[in-house]
Design goal:
Aspartate Aminotransferase, domain 2, 3 domains, eight-stranded mixed β-sheet, four-stranded antiparallel β-sheet, 12 helices
């Protein structure tokens, strides 16, 4: 072993010791220790991987990013994974890809994209940012997903695409969705930021449509701190997405071909009106951004993928434990349901305070928060009631009554792998103390 490698191993051993001394799990003290709705779960491996990337001084995407793409692609069973700096950027990238001039059937300004009104903002925002028109459909109580019964009503001659999230990991009715998009020849983008590992009839969600997106924010199934990805089985869409992600440049040769490029024609591009040849790396065929990850992020993600099967199992186990304990309160709460074909990798445990309950949602969530049980709302609720969306151009289907009910009464608590039985018991005990009042 070289002196350099010996030094590296010594540094990494010290990182492991630092993890042991500084990040070991602290004892849970009921009523004093917060029960988080989510959080990063890691060990020394993530820290060692990130330090190793820093020692190599790969500051942008590099060898770890390449390994991350390949390993995540194998888990998902897809041909192409395009990492991004966030799940929100992944949604922007996916929709922008469908606007590319390289696609004969590309989306055009004013084309309509169907989306649930009860959405996360950055599922909707790229529609608006790409000069498309969102058409809002309502959701269903129980699974909180888009209502397939409203899809046909939403169609117009300008309808070109459907995008939606599998809410909190719970798969939408993909039989109905796929029948609809095939009938009308629509693009489909699945936002699986909350649903990594969820399946419909044995097939991973995100692999049904043209493209799908992921987030690696600390609250999600795996984390890079920040980060996300677009994934697809369509190489043409992947090539466009990589160009849009990488400033819009046409070059796809990658970091490992620094000189003449993988294509071998790096210096043979021509631009009309400009004499001579132009460097392919500075030839722009898309209106793009810089949405790339860094190699230390990818190094962390690589270690997280190895833990993913265990994370999914823990989320399912924690959800089942909470469901069994909360079922007795269905007089007051609408608990989640899921389709018989759904195998859910839960992001969180959603519930909805019934309109006829003798209390309001804020009464319950305030009580939980005061007793150190974290809660979160179902994102934007009916997004059309949010101030930022008061002047957008849109259509809506129905009165969106369920989206309003979600905005009025829904919230979620955590099921992430960092929760153990004492914490879950404390959560259930806190609910019991609240309901003793009624």
């Amino acid at each position: 072993m070289s002196d350099q490698e010996t030094l590296r191993q010594s540094i990494l051993a010290q990182v492991a010791e630092f993890y042991r001394q500084n990040h070991a799990e602290k004892p849970f003290v009921p009523g004093e220790t917060a029960v988080s709705y989510a959080g990063r779960v890691f060990d020394a491996t993530e820290m060692q991987n990130m330090v190793s990337a820093v020692l190599d001084f790969w500051l942008t995407a590099g060898p770890y990013a390449q390994q991350f793409e390949e390993k995540l692609g194998r888990f998902l069973g897809v041909r192409e994974v395009i990492p991004t700096n966030s799940g929100s950027s992944a949604n922007l990238l996916a929709i922008t890809t469908l606007r590319s001039m390289k696609l004969e059937n590309r989306l055009l300004p004013g084309d309509e994209v169907i989306v649930p009104a009860a959405s996360f903002p950055t599922t909707v925002n790229p529609i608006i940012q790409n000069q498309l028109t969102p058409v809002f459909v309502d959701s269903r109580l129980g699974d909180l997903n888009l209502d397939p019964g409203q899809l046909e009503t939403a169609v117009s001659p300008r309808t070109r695409a459907l995008i939606f999230a599998h809410t909190l990991g719970n798969p939408a009715d993909m039989d109905a969705v796929m029948a609809f998009v095939r009938k009308h020849n629509l693009f489909l983008i699945e936002d699986t930021c909350d649903a990594l590992g969820s399946r419909w009839d044995g097939q991973l969600v995100g692999t049904f449509g043209d493209m799908a997106t992921l987030s690696f924010f600390p609250a999600h199934h795996i984390t890079m701190g920040e980060g996300g990805a677009v994934y697809t089985n369509r190489p043409r869409l992947a090539k466009i997405a990589r160009a849009v992600r990488d400033w819009g440049r046409d070059c796809w040769c990658g970091y490992e071909y620094p000189t003449n490029g993988k294509c071998g024609i790096r210096f043979e591009r021509e631009i009309p009106g400009i004499p001579g040849y132009y460097d392919h790396r500075y030839y722009y065929s898309e209106i793009g951004y810089n949405l790339k990850i860094t190699d230390p992020q990818a190094a962390m993600g690589l270690a997280q993928i190895d833990k993913l099967p265990g994370f999914i199992a823990a989320r399912k186990r924690n959800f089942a434990y909470l469901y069994a304990g909360l079922k007795q309160y269905e007089e007051f709460l609408i608990l989640p349901n899921w389709h018989a074909k759904a195998d859910v990798s839960w992001f969180a445990f959603p519930m909805l305070v019934r309109d006829e309950a003798p209390f309001m949602r804020h009464d319950l969530t305030r009580f939980l928060e005061q007793h150190k049980v974290q809660t979160r709302l179902i994102f934007a609720g009916n997004i059309l009631r949010q101030p930022a969306y008061q002047e957008i151009t849109y259509r809506q289907v129905s009165d969106l009554a369920v989206a309003d009910q979600i905005m009025r009464g829904a919230f979620f608590i955590g099921v992430y792998p960092g929760l153990d039985t004492p914490r879950l018991d404390y959560v259930l005990d806190t609910f019991a103390r609240f309901f003793q009042q009624f």
